[in-house]
Amino acid sequence: MTTRFFLMKENPKAYELLGELDKLGRESNIPRNLQELIKIYASNLNHCAFCIDMHTKEALEIGETLQRIAGVNAWREAPFYSDKERVVLELVEEVTFIHQHGVSDAVYDELTKHYNEKEIGELYVLIATINAYNRLGIMSRLQPKIDK
After folding, report:
1. Superfamily of domain 12-140
2. Which of 5, 59, 69, 119 is the most buried (most CB within 10 A)?
3. So what's the pLDDT on residue 39?
């Protein structure tokens, strides 16, 4: 499969604006390792190989464990995520598949036990941004480089 186009080249302003949202997410109060797990999980749900590759490498670089990265798709069964992380991963799933039933009251209520309103807003921006990147990557057929 070959890449169709590069948004950065063809529409740099759009790419720049999306990058500003990404920057807001990176500068949030959400721990960096959780930010990367959010990005990996959403990218897995969306089947975006480019983003899975990039965010897995970034997570490893900041010290996230291979076990938690590899296990994120089975977070409900895995013992190595906190309740605070679990509710975020469930939120990622509900936002990524928002067309099915929106974000449930149960997930939102659980979020409020662990995060304040500012942090919930930061989580929303993080999740919406990676979903936008995933969709652009998939539409563009962005391909990760093969490791040697």
Report:
1. AhpD-like (1.20.1290.10)
2. 59
3. 98
